[in-house]
Write a structure and sequence with these properties.
four-stranded parallel beta sheet; Rossmann fold; alpha/beta; 2 domains; about 325 residues; five-stranded parallel beta sheet; 11 strands; binds phosphoric acid mono(formamide)ester
Length: about 325
């Protein structure tokens, strides 16, 4: 495998300096359109989990750069894939990533992979086994389309949205708040929002009930990024404290990090953002969420339908950020 291959399996593969360049390039692409930087290239998009935004925006990002995308539904239009090493493959997964990744690398110029956490455990999140296995065994660039640990395309698109709104990310006060849900959702999105915002110099307060704190490894990485960027990362169990003076309320449901359910989630229903939650925020504070969202379960419909909401803009920005990320992955400097 060539040493010069770029991957984006995790934010660490990109780093703060390249992230800033990608954001600037994405803003430029949004203003003035794209050049055919991917002409003649084909990108495989492997989905082990459903998607509306990522699937469509990646397809269009490839198309607008003059390349083509091939979406593959893992376990439906392809075989189920084993990614663990050393297992006897006598269950429901007839193909190993050790063969699949190098085979696909002969047909395709890049591989995007979506594979959510199956257990919700911190151990699975930290290992991020599927993306790391593709990164090890592919001989073409690998792009994370949401893994057990991270969703870097989402985090970067969200920073483009913040940059557009406030002129710059640095210094923007973001409340990243847990929200209720009927399911235990993965933590990849809040992890990536946190890492991208910390790298871009935002002041982030993470608000979550006891037992729902983001994993220590991600928090430590975010602290390190914030130290280097001049931003800050704090944690609180008091949602009102995080909301006080914030310019952005980014709310998202995620599952507990504690082994046992630490709190009765119905008792936490008042964590669902309503317009009243903005009372202590700045007057022009905006609301952000990655989508999909369950109205009046996770976020009050009155927030989603209000002038504060930027959820549609965020989703639109996925296209431009992914075009810029693809350009970076394929070695284009800007
Ligand atoms: N936000 C996001 O990644 O949306 P999809 O799950 O629809 O791709």
């Amino acid at each position: 495998m060539s040493q010069s291959i770029r991957h984006l399996a995790a934010f660490a593969d990109l780093g703060a300096t390249n992230a800033a360049r990608v954001l600037a390039h994405a803003a430029q692409l949004k203003q003035s359109g794209a050049k055919p930087l991917l002409a003649g290239k084909s990108i495989g998009l492997l989905f082990a989990d459903p998607s509306l935004r990522t699937r469509t925006s990646m397809d269009q990002a490839c198309h607008r750069l003059g390349g083509r995308a091939l979406a593959l539904d893992v376990g439906a239009s392809t075989w189920q894939l084993e990614t663990a090493d050393g297992v006897r493959m006598d269950a429901d997964k007839p193909e190993h990533v050790r063969e699949a990744a190098p085979v696909l690398s002969q047909y395709l110029d890049g591989l995007g992979v979506r594979a959510f956490s199956r257990t919700g455990t911190v151990a699975e999140e930290d290992a991020d086994q599927v993306l790391q296995a593709f990164k090890r065994h592919a001989s073409v660039p690998v792009l994370n389309l949401e893994s057990a640990r991270e969703h870097p395309c989402q985090g970067m698109a969200d920073m483009l949205t913040v940059q557009e709104e406030f002129g710059a990310c640095a210094g923007t006060r973001i409340a990243l708040s847990w929200a209720p849900h009927i399911k235990r959702l993965p933590r990849a999105v809040p992890n990536s929002v946190l890492l991208s915002a910390a790298a871009m110099g935002c002041q982030i307060s993470v608000a979550a009930p006891i037992g729902y704190e983001l994993a220590p490894g991600v928090m430590a990485q975010a602290q390190e990024l914030a130290s280097a960027s001049g931003g800050s990362v704090t944690q609180t169990r008091d949602q009102a404290e995080a909301l006080s003076g914030c310019q952005v309320l980014y709310a998202k449901a995620w599952g507990a990090t504690a082994a046992a359910a630490p709190a009765d989630e119905p008792a936490l229903a008042n964590w669902m953002p309503t317009l009243a939650h903005f009372d202590q925020a700045t007057a022009n504070a905006i609301f952000m969420h990655c989508l999909p969202v369950r109205r009046d379960v996770e976020i009050a419909a009155e927030v989603l339908d209000s002038a504060r909401s930027r959820v549609i803009t965020q989703a639109g920005n996925r296209l431009y950020v992914q075009m810029a990320l693809l350009a970076w992955l394929f070695g284009h400097e800007f």
